[in-house]
Structures are given as C-alpha cells and as structure tokens.
Amino acid sequence: MSKVRVRFAPSPTGGLHLGGVRTVLYNYLFAKQHKGEFILRIEDTDQNRYVPGAEQYIIDCLEWCGLIPDEAPHLGGPYDPYRQSERKGLYKQYAEKLVAAGYAYYAFDTPEEIEAMRVRLKSEGKSNLQYDHHVRMQMRNSLTLEEDETKALIESGTPYVIRIKVLQDQVVSFTDMIRGEMHFDTNNVDDKVLLKADGMPTYHLAVVVDDYLMKITHAFRGEEWLPSAAVHILLWNYLGWINEMPQWAHLPLILKPDGNGKLSKRDGDRLGFPVFAMNWEDPNTHELIHGFRELGFLPEAFINLLAMLGWTDGTEQEIFTLDELIEKFSIDRVHKGGAKFNYEKAKWFNHEWIKKMSIDRLKPDIKGIFENAGIEITDQLQFEKIISLVKDRCTLLTDFIEQAGFFYKPPSSYDIAALKGKWDDTKASFFNSFLVDINKTTWESVAIEEAFRNRAAEMNIKPGELQLPFRIMLVGGKFGPPVFEIASVLGREETISRIGKAIISFTL
Ligand code: GLU
C-alpha cells in the first residue's frame, strides 16, 4: 500500500464545530497509526462565504488540540500551496480536459435564464428543478450551440461556467469504510458547475483535483458530504484517475442531546453548552460563540470525548490518551448511526482528566485562569500544593477559581446562615485560645489539628462542632478541602488573621 496520506479540508467560513474537530481527530489518528501524513488544506474557493480570521482560528484549534498537521498552508510542504484560492490557475485545465473528452460542457445561461427554467419546470408540475439531463438540451450551452457559436461567445468574453455532463442510466458505486457498499443512480445527479464564471473551481472540482494531486489515500469527512460523493466518483472516473481514488469514510453526525437532528452551532448557546472548540467571534456580527477551551476544558479531555462520540475500542475503557487512541483507533469500530452529544458526559471526561493530570501539566492553564481573575501567583510551591489539594473537586479548569480562589483572597463575606446554632460565646472563646496555641505549633496540618483537638478537649467541646466555624472563617462557606490542610497552606500569619477577623464578624 502506498504511504497513507489523509487530509482535513475545511472551508474557512467560521468557527470550528466539534464535529469538525472530530473529523480532524479521526484523520489524524488514522494517519499516525499508519505512520502516514496528515494534511491541512484550506478550501476557500467560495469567496462569498470566506470569513477573515477563520483560517487562523482553525490552525489555532488544531494546535490547542495537539493535532499538528504535517503539511499545511502555514507550514508548507511538497504539494504547496495548500490554500485552494492560491491554486486557482491549476484547475481550469482539468475542467477543459473534461470538456474535450465530452464529460463536461460550457454553459452560458444567465442567472435569469436559469431562474426562468425553474419557473417553467415548476409550472409544469415538476419537483426536480435541477440543471440536469432533463433540461440541458434546452439551455444555452456548448451542447446546444454550434461549435463556432460557442467559440465566438468565449472569445467575446461572454461569462460562462463549465458543467459536468452526468451520463444517464448508470449506477455509481463505492465502498465506504464505515457504511459499506454505497450506490447512486446517475439519473438523480445534476450537472454540477465545476468551474465558475470567475475562473474559480467549485468545491467539487477542486476537492477531486487536489485529492489526486496531493496523493490522498483516505478521505474522512462528515456524513453531510455523502450526497456529493456521486459527483466526485464521476469526476475521478471521467478524469481517468479512478484507480487512484482515495478510500472514503463518511463519519456519523453528532446529534443534539435529544437525538433530534444534527447539533448545530446555534444549539450550544441555546442549550447552555459549548459547540465550538474555542471562542469564536464573528468578525461581521461580533457575536461570540463560546468554546470548550475558554469554558475550562483540557485539550486532552476534549480529544478524548470527541474520540468516543462515534467510536469505542470494544471494551469498557473510556479514558484514552492521544497515544493510546493512535494505537487503538480503528475505523471498523466507528458507528454508522449518529452520536448524541451529552454535555454532562463531556464534563465527566474533563473531571477524570483533571484528576489524572500532573500538577506540572495543570499549572500553566490554571495560572492563566487565575491571572484573568486578577489573582497573581507568587509562591510556586504554595501554588502546587493548592492545585493538588483541590484538583479532584474541579470539573472544569474554571472551577479552580471557586475551589481555590480563597487561598489568595480572604473571604469577603461569610455563610452566616450555615453558622446558625453553631456559634456562641464558648466557641468564640475556644478560637481566642486556639489563636494563642497556634502561635506555638509546628505549621503542618497534623500539628494544627492536634492543637485544635487538645484545646477542644480542654474546653470540653466536641471538635466536630468547631470544624464548620473554622472552615467558614478560612474560606467563607461550607466547601473546600480538609480544613487543617487549608490552614497549613494558608500559612500561620494568614490563618491567624482570618480567625481574628471572623471572630469579630461572627459576633457582630
Ligand atoms: N471543504 C469541505 C468542508 O468544508 C470539505 C469536505 C471534504 O472533506 O471533502 O467541509
């Protein structure tokens, strides 16, 4: 088998939906497993849909996810350029080759003429309003015009497109790596435009020419592209390249949580979860669509949860590293049916990953989140202790603010309601004595706890009744890791100061 070469070929029309990232991931896993190459190709031939910033966003997403291409517009490679708009001059010759071979034709119909054709078909009660074998001989194209007329029109600069001439009464077949045998009746396939009036190829021509020229061996793409496969196979055939056609796999859709239809970018903000990999701000409308990254997901968890949206390794295992995925991924285990997206499950993956992550790996991300919240980290050792104390309690990275922000900022208020019935003068006097005791203890959790218990025993109070007030003194509420651990990380001075302040506030 020739060297595996796969491609992710997005159109830069906006942010990257999680379905798009999953397509990247499956491409990447397959390439790496076969020691092959993963290519990023930007399909920007539709200038009307081009959105500035979208290409860079895609590149940044791939980087965040750690799915780095081997060849790409920003990296270059042996098949440069990797941006279709920069390959514009390349496609026309193939369209013309098809015309010369009788598989395509020049069409001069104006938009008004095409509209008139549709109106006519509608008035005749037809539901199929396509430009296809039914109507092509009634239109203004090189099949209906004399050869010299066609030539004259082209030479006079009349705008034209090149359309594929789909042969009738044929069945186009291919074996999809996920879906098996697929068949299409050519009578249902329209004469798609291959080359537009501005000289740009359409997606259909460009994708076939580039997959051929870039020696792509396997093409994984979303299920929504399945209907286009018929035209693509015809083109591979008509261009004489059918033996080099990549093997295709059309990936199942990612569905809304209730299973009703494809998860769209609108669903996210509507249903309260992210759909894009990273925040995306539309440059025209300035609408912000939230991303998994900014909401506190780890890329390792994001990749893991995407891998499992449509695939399993056949065991109960759900947590996989990228290396394990590379080793275990197999296209035969990709489901045919759509995968329902479940945000609670997505958060579960992130929680598992936070628990599993090393402190060193978590440090930079959490530092960034703290800095955004105005918290500056000065003591590295203390920061590491804090992370290890609270990480198991955090589902999202952003939870670290709530779970550990109190280490950096004393409570601005106390959960007084929680103290109801648990605070009185005896307890206040316990803490006044304890303040003196802890001036002398070694500053570590076991010693602090011992001092706490000794003083409680001496005053005949159950230590259990004192722990909640102590916690509220240090963090403000009923949450956080073990209270003596908190005190030990806060340090003697800060603990004393918080107890002192709280005694006054509680009594007021
Ligand atoms: N440019 C297409 C897209 O935007 C690529 C489809 C394909 O992979 O063939 O998704």
Shape, principal axes of CA atoms: elongated
Radius of gyration: 32 Å
Strand order of the largest sheet: 3-4-7
**What fold name goes in the CATH topology slot of one domain?**
Arc Repressor Mutant, subunit A
Biggest pleated-sheet summary: 3 strands, antiparallel
| Strand residue percentage | 5-15%
* Number of separate helices: 20
Bound molecules: glutamic acid
Structural class: mainly alpha
Which regions contain 5 or more consecutive residues with pLDDT less than 50?
Answer: none
Helix content: 40-55%
CATH architecture of one domain: Orthogonal Bundle
Number of strands: 13
Give the C-level CATH assignment of one domain.
Mainly Alpha
* Mean pLDDT across every amino acid position: 96
Q: Would you kindly provide a written description of the structure presented here, covering whatever features stand out?
A:
By secondary structure, the protein is mainly α. Among the domains are: 87-207, Alpha-Beta Complex (Glutamyl-tRNA Synthetase, domain 3), CATH 3.90.800.10; 359-507, Arc Repressor Mutant, subunit A (Orthogonal Bundle). It contains 20 helices and 13 strands. It has helices spanning 18-33, 54-65, 88-100, 111-123, 147-155, 203-213, 229-238, 265-271, 299-307, 322-328, 343-356, 359-372, 380-390, 399-404, 416-419, 425-437, 445-459, 463-475, 483-490, 492-507; strands at 5-8, 37-40, 104-107, 161-164, 171-176, 180-185, 193-195, 218-222, 247-251, 254-255, 280-281, 288-289, 339-340. The protein has a three-stranded antiparallel sheet with strand order 3-4-7. The protein has a two-stranded parallel sheet with strand order 1-2. A hairpin with a 3-residue loop joins strand 5 and strand 6. Helix 16 packs antiparallel against helix 20, helix 17 crosses helix 19 and helix 18 packs across helix 20. The longest helix has 16 residues, at 18-33. It is elongated. The chain starts with a strand and ends with a helix. 37% of the residues are buried. The model has no long low-confidence stretch (mean pLDDT 96). The protein binds glutamic acid. Residues 9-11, 43, 203, 207, 221, 225 line the site of glutamic acid (GLU).
